[in-house]
Amino acid sequence: MKKLYFFPFLALGCFSLISCNSNNSIDNEDFSLKPETITYASYRLECRNTLLREGMNFFDGVGPTLYAGGSLYKKEIVYKVLQGDKVFYEGEPLKAGHYDFVVFPKEEKSAKLSGSFEVKKSKTTNNKKGYYTLTKKEVENTRLSLYNNIGALGEGKMPSIGDVNILVIPLTFNETGSLSSYAHYEEKELDKIEKSYFGEAKDTSWESLASYYEKSSYGKLKIKGTVLPEYQYPLSSSEVQSQFLSGRLSTNTIVKNVLNAISKRDNINPADYDYDKDGYIDGIEVIYKTAKPYTSQTMDLWWCFTTYITGNLPNKNKPVARRYFWSRYDQIETNYYLNKGINRSDTIDAHTLVHETGHMLGLNDYYISSGSEGTMPAGGCDMMDHNIGDHSAYSKYLLGWVTPKVIDGTESDFLVTLSSFQDTGDCLIVRNTVTDPFNDTPYDEYLMLSYITPTSVNEADSKGYGEYTGVGNGGYYSKPGLSISHIDNRLVSFEGSKVTSTGSLSNVVATYTDELKNDYEVDSMGIVTKSPSYSITSNTAAYSGEINSKGTYVNQGSSNKEIVAIASDGSGIYLKSKNAESALGLQKYLFGTSEYGCGNTYFSNYKQQTTFNNGVYWNDNSVNNWTFNVEAQTDHNITLRFLKNF
User: Fold this and answer.
1) Which of 221, 288, 447, 529 fits as disulfide partner to 217, beta carbons 3.0 to 4.6 Å?
2) Boundaries of domain holding 374
3) What is this structure's pTM?
4) Whether 459 and 568 share a structural domain
5) Torsion angle of alpha carbons 40, 43, 49, 51, nearest 10°?
6) What residues contact 233, with CB distance under 8 A and at least 6 apart?
7) What angle, 0 to 180 degrees and rounded to 10, lies between the N-to-C axes of helices 187-198 and 209-216?
8) Is there a single domain that holds both residue 28 and residue 163?
C-alpha cells in the first residue's frame, strides 16, 4: 500500500462491468480495453481497463480515476492491490493472475471502492514491428540550421552537415610593462590553438574541435578552417575594460573592428567561409590572451561565450559576420586530465571550444544559466550541460545527425534493441500514440531514449574530468546504461490583425504549431498576419515560455524545460534536488541491469510522476501510453520490451 496524490487518467470509451477469461494467456488481438465503473455513496471510480498484460502495473494499466459528487477528486487517495494475502504497490509490474483492489479517499477511509482485474500473458513481437525509423531526408529537412527562430541565437547558425570552414582569430591587446608577455602569443601557444581546433585527437589530451565533431556527428560534420596570424588590438586590456565598464565598448565592437582590419591585412574572401550560402560567415572564433580576471562585472568581457552581432544583414555575395565565439586562451590549457589515466602528456583541452561551438550550431545551454534554481535538469552528462562527453541524442536529432526510431502504436507488446548510441547513433522516440502521435520533427514533446556507452568521445571523460573531481562520479558515466530524457521543444506561432507602430502584431493569439516556418504570412494588403515558428522552452525558467491554461502566451518563468533527464529511481533528483550535482555521472540513475550498476530496469508513468510538472500528465496534457522494461543488456546493446497501457 502506498499513498500519493492522485493524477487522473484519460478516460477512453464507455464504461461497463466486465468479467475476465480465467486463462493465464490470451492472444494480442483480444486485449481490447475492458473498462469498469464502481460506485460507493457519492463516489465513483472509473477504471480504464481491467484486463492487463503481464508486466504492466495497476496504476498505469487500470488507470483508476476517482470522482466525488460528480467532480474529479483531487485530494490524496490510497490504493491497495491484493492477491490473496499478498499486497502489491500500485506501480509494481505484475505477473499473470487474478488481483483485487481497494481505492478510498485518505480522509474518508470508510468509502472503499473495491474491484478486481486480470493480468494475462501476451505474445511479444520480435520482428522489428511496433516502430518506424525516420529517414535521412526527413531528419535533415528539420535540422536547426534551416530555421531562423528556432534554437540558440536565431539566424546565421553554423551548418551542422558538410565541410564547414571557420575563422579562428588569435587576439592580443596592446600590453606594456609587467603585462608585456601578454602582448603577443608565443609560437608554442599558436601551435596549441591550431591543434585544439584542427589537430588530430592524439595531438591533444582528449579531442580537437574537428576530431570531436567528426566523431560525434558520425562523419556528417567536418570542421576545417584557418587560424589567422595574431592580431593585436590597439588598446590595452585595461583600456578595453575601462571602456567596457563605462558602456563605450563591447565585444561586438571589438570583433567588428578586428574583422575589418584582418580582412584587409590577410585578403580574406568571406565567401570561403559560408558553406550553406546564407549570407553569413559560418563560424568566427576569437581566442584572446589576457591576464585580466573575470568578475561579476566583467563576465561579459573576460569570459567565454557565444553571441551575435546585430544590424548585419545577410549578403550572399559578400557574407558578413553574425554569431561568434569569444574565449580566453587559458581555457584550452586546463590540465584537467592530469592523473586521470589518460596516456597523453599534452594539456590541450577543447571542452570549452566544443561546448561553445554547440551554440554556434544553434544548441541551447542545458544547464540553468541564471536564477537560483540550483538543479541540473539535463543530468549533467551532456556536452551542452556540464561540458563533458558526447552530445545527447536530442541534440544530434536537432542537428540532423541521427535517424531515430519512433514507437507507432501498431503493436502492443514488442521488443526493441538499441545499439551503442556513441558508436551507431541508434535512438528511440516515445510519446502518446493514441490522442496526438509524434509529429516527426524534433519540435514536439516526447521521450528520447539512447543506450550510452563509455566509448568514442565519452571514453576519456568516463575516467574522470578534473573540473568535477569530488562531484558525483567525477565525470561521465563509467559503464553503459539507458538514458531517457523528457523533451519539450514545441513551437509556437502568433496571429494578429495588423502591425503596430513598433512593428509587432496586435490582437495576438498564440498557438502551438507543428508547422516549420521561417517567414511571416501577409494578407492581400501586404499586412503581416501570422508569425514564423518560434521555439520557446529553455532549461532556465527566466527564459522559458509557454501558452498557459488560459491560452495566454507567457514569455518567461515557465516550469516547462527543454530537456530533463529521467532518473531511474523515480526521484526526479535532477529536477527536484538543490544538490543535483551530487548525482553527476552516477550509474544508479541510468536504466539497466544491476550487473552494470544501473538503478532500475522498469519505466512507468507511476514511477516517474515526480519528473513531470503535472504528475502523469505531460506539459501538453497528454499521457504517455507506454510502459517498458529492460530485458537484456550487453556492452554494446540493450533490449527493451514495450507494453501498451491503452
Assistant:
1) 221
2) 131-135+366-490+560-644
3) 0.91
4) yes
5) -20
6) 171, 172, 173, 174, 240, 254, 257, 258
7) 10
8) no
